[in-house]
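Good morning,

Attaching, inline, the backbone tokens for the sequence recovery test we're adding to the shared suite. The designed sequence is right after.
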């Protein structure tokens, strides 16, 4: 079974992506096949496998990004569809598509899940400079999520006013664009100097979780490879 719909991938223009305002982003529907999406949705990892990341101090005075997190590792006892999906993401076709979209061959990927409960948010931030971008796959559907609870990723426009090492509030931005986060949607965005994503506080009932799977796109420059080797790091936060 193929998880990715390659016709839909190929229909996305790298030029249009790179020229998007206020920074490169695209929020397509249906990048996963209907069968593939349903298989992944029905086999999502149990939250009991996840690490609690709550109250962790962030740089520049930004609020903690509270959530449950699970880093992909080959040693994890995961359902087969997820192992097959990651293998497809590592295969030449998706790799070539990402390189076209970002305009570089120097990309190193890692993968993780985030599950987020009520009362939590992702404050506006710019990712670390080692990151080239992220591809977020959303795994809430009308069966388990009401859009009024929140959960959409906001693409925030600062008109170049804020330094990346600062902590603006949502209200400080000139405009925001909400990515559809329900069902078989995903969000690809590239990190530039003014790439500010965020997610407002969730208002879902107890027992509900916002669920995403993220392909983290890191710079695979020689310096980046040296840093990974020295640190032994396999995890990106």
């Amino acid at each position: 079974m193929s998880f990715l719909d390659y016709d839909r991938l190929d229909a996305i223009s790298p030029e249009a992506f790179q020229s998007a305002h206020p920074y490169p982003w695209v929020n397509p529907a249906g990048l996963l096949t209907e069968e593939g999406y349903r298989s992944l949705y029905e086999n999502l990892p149990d939250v009991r496998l996840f690490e609690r990341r709550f109250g962790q101090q962030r740089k520049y005075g930004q609020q903690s990004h509270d959530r449950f997190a699970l880093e992909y590792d080959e040693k994890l006892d995961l359902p087969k569809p997820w192992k097959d999906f990651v293998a497809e993401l590592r295969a030449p076709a998706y790799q070539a598509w990402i390189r076209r979209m970002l305009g570089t061959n120097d990309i190193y990927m890692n993968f993780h899940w985030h599950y987020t409960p009520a009362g939590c948010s992702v404050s506006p931030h710019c990712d670390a400079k080692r990151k080239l971008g992220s591809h977020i796959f959303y795994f809430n559907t009308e069966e388990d999520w009401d859009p009024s609870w929140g959960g959409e990723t906001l693409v925030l426009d600062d008109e170049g006013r804020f330094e990346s090492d600062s902590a603006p509030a949502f209200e400080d931005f000139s405009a925001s664009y909400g990515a559809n986060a329900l069902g078989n949607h995903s969000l690809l965005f590239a990190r530039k100097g003014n790439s500010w994503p965020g997610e407002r506080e969730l208002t879902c009932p107890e027992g509900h979780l916002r669920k995403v799977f993220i392909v983290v796109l890191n710079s695979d420059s020689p310096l980046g490879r040296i840093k990974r080797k020295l640190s032994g790091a396999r995890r990106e936060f």
